[in-house]
Amino acid sequence: MILSRFRQLTLAISTILGNSYFASAFTKFVNINSLKGICVPVLNCYSCPSALFSCPIGTLQHFAAIQTIPFYLLGWIGLIGMAVGRMACGWVCPFGFLQDLMHKVSSPKYKVPVFLSYLKYVILIFLVVFVPYKTGEVWFSKLCPAGNLTAALPWALWDPVNFATGQRVLVHEPKGIFYVALFILAGFLIWFVLSKRPFCKVACPMGALFSFFNRYSVIRLEVSPRCDGCQICQTNCPMDLTLPEEVDSKECIRCLECTRCGFVKVVSPSFFPRAAPWKMS
Fold first, then answer.
1. Preceding amide of 244 cis, omega within 30
2. What radius of gyration, in Å, describes the C-alpha atoms of the chain?
3. Which 3 state secondary structure label does DSSP give 222?
4. Taking the mean position of all CA atoms in its chain, how far away is CA 279?
5. Residues facing 54 on adjacent strands
6. DSSP reduced 3-state for 267
7. Under a CB-based contact definition with an 8 Å cutoff, are residues 4 and 260 in contact?
8. In principle, which of 21, 48, 160, 219 could form an S-S bond with 31, CB 3.0–4.6 Å?
9. Rounded mean pLDDT of 195-203?
10. How far is Cα 153 from Cα 232, in angstroms, rounded to an integer?
């Protein structure tokens, strides 16, 4: 329980720190200081009025749109991935935090079908890289529910006016695109209540990128042969993994909730654990 509360605390702190640029209330413009040159390892929309840093997926789309390879960004993602795999998803992602909170709402609960987990790779390749490369437009950002919740919707509701010119600050997207994005956002918000972290499982391109490193990162999970099959780890898992068989799978977000399995630490984090994962007999 202590670990779970600590993880929720780190998620809350990350959400607040990553969105602490309150000067936009006076400038009526997005933050463009030097901190915006830093990409956090999670979805955190560049255009959010309070965003202090940049989103790696938005940055990746930008470079795809101008048909340039972002060596710094790819190196940064690779460094984090090789160190901790998808751990950022479980410990510092604001949108993951929102999903965790909304899933606590009392309702019928449903598991996300496993085959849908492959959709995020299609989104990464097609919507994040290929389409921007061909069109010069950052299409994932236009439709991203995280971005629309924290950026497009707040700006649209605020619609600030520059006092010096008397002109509206926003350059409006066609209403059709905005309404489609709101429909996608509404669908995911409902899904968050019904299922554990559906966006992480189905649609997050950041999670798709980090998932390639899960089996090779420095920090991984190790399962002891003392497991008695109590399935507490599976019940606690926010990604609905079948544990311990799927320990360190591409879907694991390293939240460590599976380590809360009674008095015997059956699942534990480890530096370079033994190569062959233990499986139940």
1. yes
2. 20
3. strand
4. 29
5. 39
6. strand
7. yes
8. 21
9. 97
10. 39
Please tell me the number of Cα atoms within 13 Å of 78 on its side-chain side: 6
DSSP 126: I
Q: In whole angstroms, how far apart are CA 54 and each of 103, 143, 192, 210?
A: 27, 17, 25, 17
- Give the residue extent of every domain in the chain: 2-211, 218-281
CA angle centred on 121, ends 4 and 252, rounded to 5°: 25
Distance (Å, whole) CA 213 – CA 85: 5
The confidence score (pLDDT) of residue 114 equals 93
187, 55 contact by CB (below 8 A): no
Is residue 180 exposed (0-12), middle (13-18) or buried (19+ Cβ within 10 Å)?
middle
pTM above threshold 0.70: yes
Total residue count of the chain as it appears in this document: 281
Amino acid letter at 4?
Answer: S
Which 8-state DSSP code applies to residue 148?
Answer: I
Rounded Cα distance between 9 and 221, Å, is 22
What is the token pair recorded at 47?
């255009």
Residue 31 CA to residue 50 CA, distance in Å, equals 7
Q: What digits encode the pLDDT tens for the residues 216-233? A: 899 888 877 777 777 888
Distance CA 34, CA 141 (A): 22
Backbone φ, ψ for residue 206 (5° rounding): -65, -45
Q: Which residue has 């926003």 as its token pair?
A: 170
Indicate the CATH number for domain 218-281: 3.30.70
User: CB–CB of 83/53 below 8 Å?
Assistant: no
pLDDT exceeds 60 at position 113: yes
How far is 85 from 253, CA to CA, in rounded Å? Answer: 8
3-state secondary structure 78-100: HHHHHHHCCHHHHHCCHHHHHHH
